[in-house]
Amino acid sequence: MKKGQLLSSPPDTFRKSFDIASPVSGQVQPLNAIDGTLYTQGYFGPGAVINAPSSSIKAPFNGICTRVTPLDYAIEIKSSVGLKCLIKFGESTQHLHGAQFNCHVKRGSTFKAGAVLFTVNTGWLKQQGVNNVCIMTLLNANALLGVMPTTRKYVEAVEDPLLTLFV
């Protein structure tokens, strides 16, 4: 088994498993449900997509902000144990130049699980032809045995697990 890969069931042997909460409420889909080839090819690591009617993206765990990229409607965060996540809203947003993206943290800011990381104007984005989806991937999943997305069809932000990590 290749380390850090997306799993459909738990590995036969593992020391521990951890759940990572969803950053937004909505319907869960696999990464291959979106058009971004960098995501579907695993360039940003394993993860999941949430069809998100909500405009608030919340912290799935306690951590620190390591990068904010408003042109991409994205943020990178790191947990206290070193897990690095990319959270992005919308598929193709570069042409919007960060309009209607309001980040509540900056690089180096610490936050608690459930804190609002950023907000977007979902109505405006929809008018611009952007699908209201939130993409969450694990940037350093190669340190894990594997990652398994939830089997739930719908998740609540911060309350329900989106990904289970195996070490």
Give a structural overview.
The protein has helices at residues 37-40, 122-127; strands at residues 5-6, 17-21, 26-29, 47-51, 56-58, 63-69, 74-79, 84-89, 101-103, 110-111, 116-120, 133-138, 146-149, 154-155, 161-166. With 167 residues, it is mostly beta strands. The chain has one domain: Glucose Permease (Domain IIA). Strand 7 (74-79) and strand 8 form a beta hairpin. The longest helix is centred in the C-terminal third of the chain and has 6 residues, at 122-127. The protein is globular, with a radius of gyration of 15 Å. The mean pLDDT is 91.
Distance between the termini: 13 Å
Structural class estimated from helices and strands: mainly beta
Helical content, roughly?
A: under 10%
Radius of gyration: 15 Å
CATH topological fold name: Glucose Permease (Domain IIA)
| Overall domain count | 1
Strand content: 35-45%
CATH architecture: Distorted Sandwich
Overall 3D form: globular
**Chain oligomer state:** single chain
Mean pLDDT: 91
Give a count of the beta strands, DSSP E runs of length 2 or more. Answer: 15
**Can you write the helix and strand succession as a string?**
EEEHEEEEEEEEHEEEE
